[in-house]
Design brief:
Radius of gyration of chain A: 20 Å
Helix content of chain A: 25-40%
CATH topology of the largest domain in chain A: Rossmann fold
CATH class of chain B: Mainly Alpha
Radius of gyration of chain B: 23 Å
Strand order of the largest sheet of chain A: 6-9-10-3-11-12
Strand order of the largest sheet of chain B: 1-2
Distance between the termini of chain B: 34 Å
Distance between the termini of chain A: 66 Å
Bound molecules: adenosine-5'-diphosphate, magnesium ion
CATH superfamily of the largest domain in chain A: P-loop containing nucleotide triphosphate hydrolases
CATH class of the largest domain in chain A: Alpha Beta
Helix content of chain B: over 70%
Oligomer: heterodimer
Number of helices of chain B: 17
Order of helices and strands of chain A: HHEEEHEEHEHEEHHEHEHEEHH
Number of domains of chain B: 1
Largest sheet of chain A: 6 strands, mixed
Mean pLDDT of chain A: 84
Number of helices of chain A: 11
Strand content of chain B: under 5%
Low-confidence stretches of chain B: 1-7
Structural class of chain B: mainly alpha
Chain lengths: 280, 415
């Protein structure tokens, strides 16, 4: 361990860089009488979109907030690029390279787009904020995301739902994060705006970021995710590679028709055989 | 990329949906649409002030005399200074109900320290102001550690510090501060020499124009749109004319009061801090959405503490200025309507009670409204019963405008 600690500044070894960029093991979180998360594990690799799905109250947002440093976990291990990290505040999460777009957007309606994008990270020009630099970088960032925002000097309250979501996503990218978490980014959006946000998610993946996408919408999940992780009642309940899974399989894991994917698969196979035998 | 195909357009004007109107007409239509959508800013209070001045002038033309306006400036400085602090707490969507008592404690400490204990005057002033700082620190810690609503903390402070003020004063009802001290001279008799006042009236618009032109250069270098030079020229010109006429008119009487200038300087500095620094940005962010600010990594608690500290410090400074102007501190210092006027001034000046909206200039505009009403009614020989009722009605009107414009902003997507 001594050798690796001195090595810390130079970054992970080759073996580690091919490993997951974010890895959680045994995460538990309790709110009073509610055990919101029990022993949850999760991995996200660079350039991979992992969808985190589950019923209402399954603990998805809680897990996001644990990773984002909003609610520190009661127990469990978090590793970023193979290094164990302690995320005890949102600022710590940002420093480590984890960016979050929260379900409840976390934009300040009274501030304009530039102010929201750079909130807590304002560029400085001497003692004062460098508005010119921030505005320039805002346009650069928004164009890089092919985002459609008419003006960055209007309060974000005057933007549409999709535009607000775009601002929130653009905002998460400013610190050059390794992992971006999006909590239900399309929940309140129309069809066209949803497509815009899903395009953004693919842009992020193509830029080599690990993306953790929380969603209720199976169509969205199957459209962009490489892997689907199911939470049920605060526990892991399945991990599916998207090309090799079906909507039904995931839904079954979400609703708890089975305890895990393996038994589900065998049960279904058995069922299919039984059905075939029942047919004349 | 789109920038290479349309190199003539600045980055921020590329979107075709952006309704962009140039020149004076664009300015007027933009302003009108902002008003319609409830983005009122300081509009209502400026209109209100003009109406109030006209009404009182028609009642008694002494109201707009140089002499009365100089008095108005002198009367406004202390309450206005307290009000700057109230603006700050309102911006983070909190309240300080105890600014009057804190100013009273500070005045008592000043007088007892300087007169009874024979401290050097500088030290007495410093201690009096630091008492305010300490009280603000206490409020800030109580608020951030225990999460007690600021309304309750400062209500307790309102009572507690009246008690402390009486305790500090002991048996003495009121203590006179000698007229020949620099403090009293500063508050009562210090006026800017005409040459200095005119120099300032020219320097301020010049500084404004230069900073805008320099800002334009940086924006152009970054490929962003610039403010038309004509626009800068017109604004600087209007400011220059207003300041020159104001200075000339006040100079017909005693001139620009040093204490009022101190208040103005504090307003300008606070406005700069709020608009240009990261601290100021975090104040607005917290007022808009605390949770968003916290998640953005802003040390929210530190900002709250800084705001409470500044508020009570401004209150204490206001107490010192009030004592200096009256050359007296006593049991009635900071009492009466000091508290309510200071809070009302911030709200009347256009700072929203809902947080995140307003500017340091609210303190200036609001206190001018309140003191104008008071001065006008005195000229009409109406007693304080009428003054209280009218000030109350104006405050109510300001709060109604605030609530309505908030609702309108919501429906026009400018919440
Ligand atoms: N701050 C909190 N305090 C108490 N209980 C909470 C808190 N946040 C979440 N919970 C509880 O934790 C459980 C999981 O909630 P959440 O993570 O929001 O679910 P999801 O996002 O999957 O719908 C729910 O039972 C919820 O009531
Ligand atoms: Mg949720």
């Amino acid at each position: 361990m001594t050798a690796t600690t001195t090595d810390h500044g130079t970054g992970p070894t080759d073996a580690r860089s091919t490993g997951p960029v974010l890895s959680l093991t045994g995460i538990s979180k309790r709110f009073g009488a509610v055990q919101a998360l029990s022993d949850v594990s999760l991995e996200v690799r660079a350039g991979e979109v992992v969808a985190l799905v589950g019923d209402n109250g399954a603990g998805k947002s809680t897990l996001v907030k644990v990773i984002a440093g909003v609610h520190p976990p009661d127990s469990g291990r978090v590793e970023v690029e193979g290094w164990p990290v302690t995320i005890d505040s949102p600022a710590a999460a940002q420093r480590i390279g984890i960016a979050t777009v929260f379900q409840d957007l976390s934009l300040c309606d009274n501030l304009d787009v530039v102010a929201n994008l750079f909130l807590g990270n304002e560029a400085l020009h001497g003692p004062t904020m460098d508005e010119v630099e921030m505005e320039r970088r805002s346009w650069e960032l928004l164009r890089q995301l092919s985002a459609k925002i008419p003006s960055v000097r209007v309060p974000v309250a005057s933007l549409s739902g999709g535009q607000r979501q775009t601002v929130a996503i653009a905002r998460s990218l400013l610190g050059n994060p390794k992992v971006v978490m999006l909590d239900e980014p399309t929940a309140a959006l129309g069809v066209a705006q949803t497509a815009e946000v899903l395009n953004l998610v693919e842009t992020l993946r193509d830029q080599g970021l690990g993306v953790l996408l929380i969603s209720h919408n199976m169509a969205d999940v199957l459209a962009v995710a490489d892997r689907v992780v199911v939470l049920r009642l605060g526990r892991n309940n399945g991990d599916f590679e998207v090309p090799h899974t079906t909507n039904e399989e995931i839904v079954a894991a979400i609703t708890g028709a089975t305890n895990n994917a393996v038994s589900e698969r065998s049960r279904r196979t058995a069922q299919r055989h039984a059905d075939q035998e029942a047919q004349p | 990329m789109s920038t290479t195909s349309e190199p003539q357009l600045p980055a921020d004007l590329l979107d075709t949906r952006l309704i962009q109107e140039q020149g004076l007409r664009g300015y007027v239509t933009g302003f009108a649409s902002r008003l319609r959508s409830g983005d009122l800013g300081s509009m209502p209070v400026v209109v209100g002030l003009v109406v109030i001045w006209l009404v009182f002038y028609l009642q008694n033309d002494v109201f707009l005399s140089s002499r009365n306006l100089v008095n108005l400036a002198l009367q406004s400085a202390a309450i206005g200074t307290i009000s700057i602090g109230v603006v700050l707490v309102l911006l983070v969507a909190e309240i300080d109900l105890s600014v009057g008592s804190v100013s009273g404690v500070s005045a008592a400490v000043l007088a007892v320290g300087f007169v009874n204990k024979s401290w050097p005057l500088v030290m007495a002033v410093a201690v009096a102001i630091l008492v305010g700082t300490a009280i603000g620190l206490l409020y800030g810690l109580l608020y951030t550690r225990f999460g007690v609503p600021s309304f309750v903390i400062t209500l307790a402070g309102l009572l507690g510090f009246v008690g402390l003020q009486l305790k500090v004063l002991g048996d003495t009802g009121s203590i006179n501060i000698p007229f020949d001290t620099w403090l009293v001279k500063f508050a009562q008799q210090a006026f800017l020499p005409a040459s200095v006042a005119y120099a300032l009236a020219v320097a301020v618009p010049a500084l404004y124009a230069v900073s805008r032109v320099l800002g334009n250069r940086r924006r152009a270098a970054a490929g962003l749109s610039t403010q038309p030079v004509v626009d800068i020229g017109v604004r600087a010109g209007l400011l220059l004319v207003a300041l020159l006429i104001g200075t000339w008119y006040l100079n017909q009487d005693r001139g620009v009061s040093a204490m009022f200038l101190l208040f103005l300087a504090l307003v300008v500095v606070m406005d700069m801090l709020l608009r240009k620094t990261r601290w100021g940005r975090s104040v607005y962010a917290i007022g808009g959405n605390v949770e968003a600010a916290r998640r953005a990594g802003i040390a929210v608690n530190r900002v709250y503490v800084s705001v409470f500290v500044l508020c009570s410090t401004f209150a204490a400074l206001g107490g010192v200025l009030a004592a200096a102007r009256g050359a007296v501190a006593g049991q009635s210092s900071g009492g009466g309507d000091t508290n309510l006027n200071a809070i009302a001034a911030a709200v009347i000046g256009g700072t929203s009670l809902f947080g995140g909206r307003g500017s340091a200039y609210s303190a200036l505009l609001g206190v001018l409204v309140i003191q104008s009403i008071s001065s006008g009614l005195t000229l009409m020989n109406l007693d304080s019963s009428v003054r209280y009722m009218i000030t109350g009605a104006v405050l109510l009107l300001a709060v109604i405008i605030d609530s309505l414009s908030r609702r309108s902003r919501r429906s026009h997507g400018r919440a």
